[in-house]
Here is the input.
Amino acid sequence: MVSMSLVFRQLLFWWLLLAGLLPVCARASDTLTVAVASNFSAPAKVLMADFEQRTKIDVRLVLASSGKLLAQITQGAPFDVFLSADDEKPAYLVEAGFAEPSSIFTYAVGQVVLWSPVMQDERMLLQRLKNQQFSRLAIANPRLAPYGVAAMEVLTALDLVPAVEPKLVRGENIAQTLQFVASRNVEFGFIARSQWLQIQSNKKQNNVGAGWAVSPSLHAPIRQQAVLLKRAESNPAASAFLAFLKSEEARKVIASYGYLTPNDE
Here is the structure.
């Protein structure tokens, strides 16, 4: 007699197949490794758990700055999919022969917030930034992290770079930048809006400080793109995951974490 568990798996397989989330050749035994930019860590964990539950495919996340992940990929790291925090690094990987050209797409558009845990007024926060009334300002390293590039573009647009350059503290990635500010070792920091929303939703933390939502007009769009890496060309699990990332269900999760989705730009 066929067990109910087996029947359920078969029904789940065909549902995913018809929904376009699972290629014909994908199997529950397939696995994949996804390299994810650190700013996207929270929604990525939710998406991976959902994907694993739907497909029974095991997923391993590797979190780091986009620049660090790029270096690891070019040095032969065994990643199947790359979720970058920008659109430059996936394009480079395609040009250098490390990724599939037709697989690139924008999965999220990032937004930036200036956060201070020691202030309560957004207007005063912005005023103190413009008047350089602080000792240290945290940003992600622009050489490694797209959110660091955006932060420098904001400072440039506000004509603040020469004045604040000596006060900058650079995190290896946006996660480390958040840690610098949360520890109160620096007064201000440019973080991802997704991180700011998580700070606000933390019920254990009564005093979250002040956040200034940076206008997208002050920096180039942070188009976070996904790409299938060459080593995963024949891995149906990787194709299944990328299909899932484009689904309406995935888009809702991404939006709930403070990102715009491509159609919302």
Q: What stands out?
A: The first strand starts at residue 31 and ends at 37. The domain at 4-109+223-264 is CATH 3.40.190.10 (D-Maltodextrin-Binding Protein; domain 2). Residues 4-18 form the longest helix (15 residues). The two ends are 53 Å apart (CA to CA).
